Amino acid sequence: QMLVGWWLVFCLIIATGFKSSLISHLTVQAKSRPIETYEDLTKLNNWRWAIDTWLMRGLPRDYFQTHKSPVIKEINRRLEQMDADPGLKEVAKGSFSIINYEKYIGVIIGTRYTDKMGYTPYYVSKKGIVVTPFYGWAFRRGAPFSDLFSRLVRQLDGTGIIGYWLKDVIAQRVRERKVAAVFTKTQDAQLPPLGLNHMQGAFYALFFGVIVCLLTLR
User: Cβ distance 91 to 98 under 8 Å?
Assistant: First the structure.
């Protein structure tokens, strides 16, 4: 009786642990490590990437073609050209990344591929690269307020206000585009609903464990 009692306790613990693990896997999806840098791209097997077609008519083309880094050379060698929307659809299929300006692609994702709760299936790297500064203010030579203006810009940039303004402008642009167009989430960007066919293996394993327990108790 003591042996049977401890065996029942053991079976109860195993069954409870299996049930908890099954529920957690069905409710919370596992997350893979995000791709942050070009080095991460080149280390992946059977992975493709592309850049927006219009970007290869300007500075990014020179950046990829003249860069001396082996990683950038490998990126350029396997680089495809694809517009933003087809590229995002390829990303949704998997094993694909798209290279684009963060602010530009952020507006597209926020407008067309983000729901009302703020969820989007796409991830934008937090470690983007700066190709070159291309914004500036023009003043006549010897302007008395030039130094004061430059110091003020550096102070605003250092306190993070400029970054905050940029995020606010992008968010406002996304809201305007959502109001102007009917938001439709593409089927490729949606995850398939969980059905019984996804859980058959887990139930078979559970039934097998129950049968083994019953036979052992007999």
Answer: yes
* Integer Cα distance of 61 and 131 in angstroms: 11
What CA–CA distance (Å, rounded) separates 5 from 65?
72
Summarised one tens digit per residue, pLDDT across range 28-86 is 555 667 788 888 888 888 899 998 888 877 777 888 888 888 988 998 898 888 888 88
Q: In a 3-state reduction of DSSP, which class is residue 88?
A: helix
Distance CA 210, CA 205 (A): 9
Token pair in block for residue 162: 């400029």
Q: Hey, where are the domains in the chain?
A: 1-30+193-218, 34-192
* 50, 90 contact by CB (below 8 A): yes
How many residues are listed for the chain in this entry?
218
Question: Taking 50 as the threshold, does the pLDDT of residue 216 lie above it?
Answer: yes
Q: Taking the CA atoms of the chain, what radius of gyration do you get in angstroms? A: 27
| Confidence (pTM) | 0.55
For the chain, the straight-line distance linking the first and the last C-alpha, in angstroms and rounded, comes to 13
Contacts of 206 (CB under 8 A, 6+ apart): 18, 19, 22
DSSP letter, residue 104: H
More confident residue, 19 or 88: 88
Angle at alpha carbon of residue 129, lines to 127 and 134, rounded to 5°: 135
Backbone φ and ψ of 56, nearest 5° = -85, 10
